[in-house]
Write a structure and sequence with these properties.
- With about 120 residues, this protein is an alpha+beta fold.
- The protein has 4 helices and 5 strands.
Length: about 120
């Protein structure tokens, strides 16, 4: 798991620190993970929301001034191509606040990660 003394008690605590519009986006990501990975367990890891499944972190996410981001995911093949406009050089997937969240794409990415741990 993450750092021994996280700044946030849980994902609700983390999300509450953001403006309402960012909270909505973070809650949508959380909902998508729960819908796809129904057995996943929520946690705070490295001061960010994360979900574990079968002992492995399948996704971490965070909010920022200009975007929300997914960490620890990359996609493969066609999915990787679809993610290209959102992927930063260090592998972070960023969805700008100026654009609608690509929910179907995020769902596909989560499904791919779940497939890796099942």
């Amino acid at each position: 798991m993450g750092k021994a003394n996280p700044r946030f008690a849980d994902i609700n605590d983390y999300i509450s620190t953001f403006p309402a519009d960012v909270q909505t986006r973070l809650e949508k990501i959380r909902e998508l993970v729960h819908n796809v990975a129904t057995e996943a367990v929520e946690e705070i890891s490295y001061d960010m929301p994360a979900f574990r499944l079968n002992g492995k972190t399948i996704v971490s996410f965070g909010g920022w001034k200009n975007h929300v981001a997914l960490y620890g995911m990359s996609g493969e093949g066609e999915l990787k191509e679809k993610l290209a406009p959102y992927t930063e050089p260090k592998g972070t997937i960023q969805f700008p606040h100026s654009e609608e969240l690509p929910e179907d794409l995020i769902k596909q990415l989560i499904e791919a990660e779940v497939g890796k741990v099942n």
